């Protein structure tokens, strides 16, 4: 119902239970998310540190094995039999073949004593002699005597090794010799990278990783089951970087993050590299997090299901009863509850329907009587329009006839006839605004015939013309503007009627440039509008204000304003209602 104060919204039981559940779950989820993030970071750091430590330990073992092989030439140089062979190599009474056989046997024993497959070789440049633990090298006559001495571990690939590289290290006597031909004797130790591949395979099997070795010259040693697409990509990216002795980096390969750990070998000057998918590191935490969220979701679903049962068995019946009570409060006494709760609420619903039916019977009788009373009141108010206008018009017709002014008589008679045909129709108390404006047009034409200086202008938007208004709501204001404004001022000659719509409200402004009112007179006029009707203000203006307020409710009515350059402005305000059939029916409902 228009003018009814809005009822503040209150949460129902179902909404309160859901909000309570959400408020209980939110701290749990937030706390878990925070702890999970902290745990995730700690575990990730621990796993990364563990991976790097394991890789460093493996590299330490590898360096230990390589270092033990590096000591082999030193041990050979200290062996008395080998020293004797070198010193007496050119002595005529020295049994060369027997001593060569003994030295080769020593080299073989020394070679097999290591855990790695290796070659120990003694080269004597002066005699062009080469003694080795390998039968393929022993006694060769193609030794590279002009090659630089490899004092550090050097990677190379020999012919006949089927592309399998090896690491070589040499010691010369004297130490200042630069190439093999300048030395008195050259000790060489060589081991195949196959040894390292086997170690990488063992490490990969234990740790479920994919380690490999790289150097700074785009050379690499992979394990036997290495993933070529990933390892080659990592090798290419690391080759262009300056790496510290140990460290970790993350690369994105094939839309997946990988954690790459690397450790530099002190013996070989190569890097041992291993990688692991970051998701693999965090998979246990991820699984735990998913299980937690699934549990929370199941708990929430069960809570919502329990709340829904409460909603269906309690909240819906209460809502139906509240809805029906609101309908009755708005005046719809035909409201009934057509819902079967199948519980204790059925009794309340049945009693409510019986009560509403009894109230409807009683109120309809009272409404019928009120309707008849209000219709009589409106017709009585309409009949109170002052009759002096008719008298003046008739005297004008008489005077014009005596003066034989036929055109004025005809114009006055036609407009007067239209005016009274409209005002005497009392069967319908609400009309469209366009009908009221037509009436005012006839009225102003009549007044213009009497007062020749009178000018008027009507500017009302087309969309306002279909608005419903009470009958004779505008003519009394125009009449007051002429009687109390234009006729009492020698300079007054203009009446303007303006319409406007804004924010669901209609405003119709009647303004004249007559004598107007001072502040005291305006305050008195506004107070009289709210007071009971009296002879001081006249029934027309009072009727206009109260009929608008009575029909359209709070905020509707009549008010007056002063005009800066003289005159008075009357403002009619009422709610937008062009979509309704007839607001008079709403008056009856109230």
From TrEMBL:
Record domain HAMP: where: 312-364
InterPro entries registered for this protein in UniProt: Bact_2-comp_sensor_kinase (IPR050640), HAMP_dom (IPR003660), HATPase_C_sf (IPR036890), HATPase_dom (IPR003594), Sig_transdc_His_kin_internal (IPR010559)
Membrane spanning stretches: 13-34, 291-311
Its membrane topology: Multi-pass membrane protein
Localization per record: Cell membrane
Domain of life: Bacteria
Pfam families for the chain: HAMP, HATPase_c, His_kinase
Keyword Transferase (UniProt): yes
Keywords from the UniProt entry: Cell membrane, Kinase, Membrane, Phosphoprotein, Transferase, Transmembrane, Transmembrane helix
Chief location category: membrane
Keyword flag Cell membrane: yes
CDD domains: HAMP (cd06225)
Database matches in PANTHER family: SENSOR HISTIDINE KINASE YPDA
Name of protein: HAMP domain-containing protein
Organism lineage: Bacteria, Bacillati, Bacillota, Bacilli, Bacillales
